[in-house]
Design brief:
The protein is α/β, with parallel strands linked by helices and 97 residues long. It contains 4 helices and 4 strands.
Length: 97
């Protein structure tokens, strides 16, 4: 499975990348919205894992780009360390697929 991880915390990106690679997945990473959008457009991705709150962008923008530009229905897992239940509810209720 080809997985794209998006986040602006280098330690989080590397930790997830190493774990998923050990489990046999092909892993791509992006630390900003521009790199993520390019990979989503130019690469066949099976799953996107994204941080909900990054310095330059947030999970909703990533989910919107996946929905509008990927050409297929890619599952998106949104990670959040914040206690903002409204953002989690929005992520869960968005009709991406």
């Amino acid at each position: 499975m080809k997985i794209l991880i998006i986040g602006d915390q280098p330690i989080m990106l590397k930790t997830m990348e190493l774990k998923l690679k050990r489990d046999g997945h092909l892993v791509l990473t992006a630390s900003n919205e521009q790199d993520a959008n390019r990979l989503i457009t130019d690469t066949i991705i099976d799953l996107v894992i994204t941080d909900n709150m990054m310095t330059e962008t947030a999970g909703p923008e990533v989910r919107g780009y996946v929905r509008n530009h990927s050409g297929k229905k890619i599952p998106v897992i949104v990670l959040s360390a914040m206690g903002q239940e409204n953002m989690v509810a929005e992520a869960l209720s968005s009709s991406l697929f």
